[in-house]
Amino acid sequence: MRHYENLVIVKPTLTAEEIQSIIAGVEEIITSNGGEIAARDAMGMRKLAYPINKNERGYFHVVYYTVAPSAISEIERRFRINEELLRFVTIKYDTNREVKAWNQQVEKANKAASTPAKEEAAPAEAAAAE
Predict the structure, then answer these.
(1) Domain CATH code at residue 115
(2) How many domains does the chain fold into?
(3) Burial letters 77-112, b for 16+ CB under 10 A, else e
(4) Pair type for strands 2-10 and 55-67
(5) What is the pLDDT of residues 94-116, one digit of tens each?
(6) Which domain holds residue 94?
(7) Cβ neighbours around 32 below 10 Å, total
(8) What pTM was estimated for this model as a whole?
(9) What is the DSSP string of 108-124?
(10) Is the four-CA dihedral 70, 76, 90, 23 of positive or negative sign?
């Protein structure tokens, strides 16, 4: 099992529910090919450096996962035929140094994902205490 990172950019013209279903589909493609998702980083809507198919913005989402190298070609093939994805990039972490950096990115993404939940819970607890 090797360590990988995928950045996908989803069309901005979709509704929030449609974007979430596309992201769920992307993650399902990874898991159906034997991948184990370690972390997710929803970067949100951002301005693109240059227009892609007349789109100035895109929804960015990063997935960190481990999978057998033979599954990458199928994962990328299924990304290519998905018309809702503007772009995607797959990054392989190979050397020990790169794997260490991947682990740090996973920790950072997991920490960022858990922080907003704690911040939302704190005001609710304060309101309940009053």
Answers:
(1) 3.30.70.60
(2) 1
(3) ebbeeeebbbebeeeebeeeeeeeebeebbeebeee
(4) antiparallel
(5) 999 999 999 999 999 998 888 76
(6) 2-129
(7) 12
(8) 0.84
(9) HHHHHHHHHHHHHHHHH
(10) negative
